[in-house]
Amino acid sequence: MLIHPQFDPVAVSFGPLAVRWYGLMYLAGFVAFLWLGRLRATSQPWHVMTAQDLDDLLFYGVLGVIVGGRLGQVLFYEPGYYLAHPLEILAVWKGGMSFHGGFLGVLAAMLLFARKRGSRFLAVTDFIAPLVPLGLGAGRIGNFINGELWGRIASPELPWAMIFPQVDMQARHPSQLYQAGLEGLALFALLWWFSRRQRPVGQISGLFLVGYGVFRFAAEYFREPDAGIFGLSYMVSMGQWLSLPMIVVGIALIVRGK
Hints:
6% strand, 9 helices, three-stranded mixed sheet, mainly alpha
């Protein structure tokens, strides 16, 4: 059995300025987005994306992630708390970002980008879908460093079961690492392989929706559930409820492409 290392959430500080690991993980995700995007644009000629397009995509995406992710946390998971402490909504450096909210924010941002550029919305999302998972994985590593979003109680006999002292002294699943592996590495490998050749418009986006939805649904069984707008449930968590529409829409896009 392991014990969570209790990392200092601050990676480095310069006087009053503190650089947190959580923010560095987001930065790593954005850097991976640009690097993979340039690689994808140059190796797959059917995508007409320039370096300027990638910079614009990142700008729109960052806004969508931050605004949507924070609003998703506020509306889906902790509306009561933030209604009582409205100024805390702006304290994004403390953590508290909802993937599903960030996902909706990115969709809105990509819609604006596609309209501005005169491109098909699904063609844009097909291009960016394989670029996203590594950033998601980095975000889960940030959750692990912060010691947040810990897992459910596990058997002490499980070799990688972990105690999170800030919670209690019971063995728990390190669910942040499970999610980093599934939603990050596994989803990236699946999408990068699938997108190596040209696909009907919408299919890559559909596979992202199905892949993330299934991986997240499975990982939620090892993660201590959050108290969402439907209350606290160990049967079907808020994260699972929000993943179900992704799976349904993803299947529809894949079938439509065929």
